Structures are given as structure tokens and as C-alpha cells.
């Protein structure tokens, strides 16, 4: 197939399979026999299954990404709060223990 999108390739393949089924007898002389038809249908079905799995994983990834963003946002707020309090309460010489390299 040419440089078609995935959807175009799947649609083209579906149409091709339908055409092959309509003209199996005539095309089988040229090697596009029942075995070929079975193989192309199997590949098509497997590709559909994999696409469905991939779409499910993409949806899960989006959900996880949003959850991660919220956690990192919360962590950032907590880090900023702890940093501020440490800088007020602790001696500057001990800031490095907390990963703070500021001069003030």
C-alpha cells in the first residue's frame, strides 16, 4: 500500500476483501485464491483488534497523564511550602540538607 493513513489503509483493505470475495473464482487463477483471501481477512481482523487495543491504551494513557499532572502540581505546592518554611526556620548552612542551594 502507498503512504495512506491507517484509516485509509483499513478502509481500502476492507473494500479489497469485499471485491476479492465477489470475484474469487476469476482471481484464483492468478493466485488470489481462497487461501489468500483467508490470509488477508485474518490480517485485517488482527489489525482491527490491535487498533482497538491501541485506542484503549491511548485513552488509559491520557487518564494517567492527567492524574500525574495533578499529583505533580500538588507535589510542587507542597515542595514550595516546605522550602519556604525551611528557609525561615533553619540556618542557611543547613539548607543543603534539603536540596536548597540558594544564597538567601
Q: Mind explaining what this structure looks like?
A:
The chain is mostly helical. The chain has one domain (6-98). 74% of the residues lie in helices and 0% in strands. The protein has 3 helices and no strands. It has helices spanning 6-22, 24-27, 34-89. Helix 1 (6-22) runs antiparallel to helix 3. The longest helix has 56 residues, at 34-89. The protein is rod-shaped. 0% of the residues are buried. The mean pLDDT is 94.
Structural class: mainly alpha
The secondary-structure element order is: HHH
Major sheet attributes: none
Question: Into which percent range does the helicity of residues fall?
Answer: over 70%
Instruction: State the shape.
Output: rod-shaped
Task: Summarize, please.
The protein is mostly helical and 104 residues long.
Task: Describe the SSE topology.
Blueprint: H1 6-22, H2 24-27, H3 34-89
Helix pairs in contact: 1-3
Distinctive features:
104 residues, mainly alpha, 74% helix
Amino acid at each position: 500500500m502507498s503512504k495512506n493513513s491507517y484509516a485509509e489503509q483499513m478502509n481500502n483493505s476492507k473494500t479489497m476483501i469485499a471485491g476479492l470475495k465477489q470475484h474469487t473464482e476469476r482471481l484464483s487463477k492468478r493466485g488470489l485464491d481462497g487461501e489468500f483471501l483467508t490470509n488477508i481477512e485474518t490480517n485485517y481482523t488482527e489489525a482491527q483488534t490491535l487498533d482497538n487495543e491501541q485506542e484503549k491504551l491511548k485513552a488509559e494513557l491520557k487518564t494517567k497523564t492527567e492524574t500525574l499532572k495533578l499529583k505533580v502540581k500538588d507535589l510542587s505546592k507542597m515542595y514550595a511550602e516546605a522550602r519556604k518554611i525551611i528557609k525561615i526556620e533553619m540556618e542557611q548552612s543547613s539548607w543543603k540538607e534539603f536540596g536548597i542551594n540558594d544564597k538567601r
